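ok so i was messing around last nite and threw this chain in just to see what happens. nothing serious, just curious
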Amino acid sequence: MTTYFLTGTYGADAIRGISRKRTSDVSKMIEDMGGKIVSIYLLLGEKDLVIIADFPGLKEAIKGSVSISKMTGISFTTSPAITAEEFDDFMA
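result:
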């Protein structure tokens, strides 16, 4: 599994759709793709939220990002992430 950061920006329709159910539906959708949400944070600043999720591969991450955008109206930028320790090992 690879960790991905999905940073999102709300549009007007996405704001109107905010609900616990929608958050639950997103979690279920990611699980159905073989992934898992690690955490979700709401932000102040340029981006409105970040979803930290594990996906089995790149294809699942892309499908997850696009599917969540279609479901919620939130625009996402999706980036793979590795820990600093993994980076240091990789660069050694």
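not much to say yet. DSSP finds four helices and four strands in the chain.
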